[in-house]
Specification:
Chain A: It is a multi-pass membrane protein. The complex is a heterodimer of chains A (about 280) and B (about 325). Chain A has about 280 residues and is mainly α. Chain A is about 75% helix and about 0% strand. In chain B, the strands form three sheets. Chain B has a six-stranded mixed β-sheet with strand order 6-7-8-3-9-10, sandwiched between helices. Chain B has a four-stranded antiparallel β-sheet with strand order 2-1-4-5. Chain B has a four-stranded antiparallel β-sheet with strand order 12-13-11-14, with helices on one face. In chain B, helix 3 packs across helix 4 and helix 8 crosses helix 11. Classes of the chains: A mainly alpha (about 280), B alpha/beta (about 325).
Chain lengths: ~280, ~325
């Protein structure tokens, strides 16, 4: 029996090269999933699409977010909200995927292999970020189809998308940490109960101004609101921002919030991953 | 020539208040199959996780394939394969895609990963199913794919944690054949199991573990021999005959005589099984007692096991 020695990785350059190779393999695995099960990808987008149809066509006519009467400009208000909400909910998919890999022993197998163990975490994040770009593209097309338009310049529009991906990127670390924390996929499924208020108690569908005072304050400071308000500004859509600091400095808040989230949850996730060996 | 491929001495590991391992020793010679046998919670999985670098340990030392598990984890990882309790294959990928993915993660280049996948698909009898998604596989096939994935670098040592748990009899046989084949090719195998027939069939040596400590380390035959004598068993045709049967059994016994009301049967430890059987049969004929069955029973590993650990294995009961 011949020993199949892997290629050397003793030098720093070699290690970096192989680490990137490992990331690519994990990202490639995710894309094979997408390729083989495109229906899953669309099902995952079903929820935001249903929410949008519900809010725009069922509740929308009663919504007066701009002060110009019920239903006026509601599509323009709700669409950026839906983009932000989809990014906010995305971390539950990450958590589920990580919990699934842990439960099925995939993470153990990978940790017993001579590869970069960070590939599970970093590769997951890369794959999910790319996934988020695809999510946004599909939702963008749907939004265009029901009459939403970006009023910003091309750069402003791109900037808005970058802020959305930036939020998702930060929340993926939360998803990875939670996925490693929960007992199994069943518990990971329950995380939606956390994600739902996190996404909804925000300016996604309703301006915080119109909520009871304390709830409005929470909604105004919600990172999802910051991103939603910031992209409304960039898209040139109705903003309906209140007087609170994050609403007045939405773009800055939309940059800083994900940075803070990453600063907290990236180390937590990495530590949790290391602690698997305890 | 025998060399030691797995050697652990005085392994200790605590989880909060409980000692999972409490001074456990383990030795596996190259090219042999070592069975780790013990009830649930005995420390089998903890041992495998330590030896496969997944878990740090508190005390003792462990070397696998000549490298220190704690200090040279990377070197160890290049020389081992692990098949855990769950089948860690990607259900959405085909068998071939799974093996190519793991090949890449074992850092083979693309061409080499594909070649190796083809070899392993043939070796594990999966060539016909190579391009089907793993989620449609039977339990035995999934396990074989799992084994194939852990064999990508042709490791010196293969660790299997309960490789046949949850499989139907056909699936177990498939996995047994695959493991036997690997051992015949020179791979050292360390497997945990709570199926005694599995240990009996596959293992060269069996280490019995309970409460994180060694109970016995022996060959399957040696383990059975420790149980001592063969037993003569007589099953009564009519329960009222039991006292008479007990007299007959006692007359030929060289040790204890046990009466089982629910059998209804009696059994006796005997030193010379054939002589005892003949004598008992003659006595029954003389006394004109009809019996449902009479025969000799060798102790099974189950009995040896229960005798050693002194309590029934709850999971064994459940299955």
């Amino acid at each position: 029996m011949t020993a199949l020695a892997p290629l050397p990785d003793e030098t720093l350059a070699g290690r970096v090269k192989w680490t990137l190779h490992d990331y690519r393999a994990i990202v490639g695995q995710e894309f094979t999933h997408l390729w083989r099960q495109p229906a899953n990808f669309l099902w995952a987008l079903g929820f935001p699409i249903v929410m949008v149809l519900l809010f725009v066509y069922v509740f929308g006519s009663a919504m007066d977010v701009t002060g110009q009467g019920a239903g006026v400009d509601y599509v323009a208000y709700a669409m950026p909200g839906m983009f932000a909400m989809t990014m906010a909910f995305g971390f539950t998919n990450t958590a589920w995927a990580v919990a699934d890999m842990k439960e099925k022993g995939f993470i153990d197998r990978v940790r017993s292999m001579p590869m970069a163990s960070s590939a599970v975490v970093v590769g997951r994040n890369l794959a999910d970020t790319i996934h988020a770009v695809l999510d946004l593209l599909v939702l963008f097309l749907i939004a265009l189809a029901i009459g939403w338009r970006s009023g910003g310049t091309a750069w402003e529009t791109l900037g808005a998308f970058a802020l959305l991906i930036w939020l998702r990127f930060a929340l993926i670390w939360v998803g990875i940490w939670m996925g490693l924390l929960v007992k199994g996929v069943e518990q990971a499924g329950n995380l939606f109960a956390v994600a739902f208020p996190f996404g909804m108690v925000s300016s996604v569908f309703t301006p915080p101004e119109l909520m009871p005072g304390w709830l409005g304050a929470i909604a105004a400071w919600n990172p999802v609101s910051a991103t939603a308000t910031a992209i409304r500004e960039l898209f040139g859509n109705p903003v309906a921002a209140g007087a609170s600091w994050p609403e007045q400095h939405a773009v800055l808040a939309a940059v800083v919030w994900p940075l803070l989230i990453t600063a907290v949850f990236l180390p937590l996730g990495v530590r949790r991953f290391r602690d698997l060996g305890r | 020539m025998t060399t030691t491929t797995v050697e652990a001495a005085g392994l200790g590991k605590r989880f909060k208040d409980t000692a999972a391992l409490d001074g456990f020793d383990l030795v596996a010679e190259s090219g042999t199959v070592l069975g780790l046998l013990g009830p649930n919670g005995a420390g089998k999985t903890t041992t495998v996780r330590i030896l496969t670098t997944l878990l740090r340990f508190d005390t003792g030392r462990a070397a696998v394939a000549g490298f220190d598990v704690a200090k040279d984890a990377r070197q160890v990882r290049r020389r081992i394969g692990l098949t855990g309790q769950q089948t860690a294959v990607d259900d959405l990928l085909t068998a071939r895609q799974n093996l190519v993915l793991f090949g890449k993660l074992f850092r083979l280049n693309k061409t080499r990963a594909r070649e190796r996948a083809d070899q392993l698909l043939a070796q594990f009898g999966l060539a016909d199913a190579a391009d089907r998604q793993a989620k449609g596989f039977s339990g035995g096939m999934k396990r074989r794919l799992d084994l194939a994935a852990s064999m990508i670098l042709a490791p010196q040592v293969l660790f299997l944690d309960e490789p046949t748990t949850g499989l139907d009899p056909a699936g177990r046989r498939e996995v047994w054949d695959a493991v036997s084949g690997l051992a015949a090719d020179g791979t050292t195998v360390v497997l945990t199991t709570h199926y005694l027939d599995e240990a009996d069939r596959l293992c060269d040596r069996i280490a019995v573990i309970d409460h994180g400590r060694n109970l016995v380390d022996d060959t399957p035959a040696g383990l059975k021999r420790r149980m001592g004598a063969d037993r003569l068993e007589i099953v009564a045709a009519d329960p009222v005959d039991l006292p008479l049967l007990e007299q007959v059994a006692a007359a030929v016994a060289d040790g204890d005589v046990a009466v089982d009301e629910s059998g209804p049967s009696v059994s006796a430890a005997v030193k010379d099984p054939v002589a005892a059987l003949t004598a008992a049969a003659t006595a029954l004929q003389d006394k004109r007692i009809a019996v449902a069955d009479i025969g000799l029973r060798r102790p099974t590993l189950d009995e040896a096991f229960l005798d050693l650990i002194g309590r029934p294995d709850p999971k064994e009961d459940a299955q």
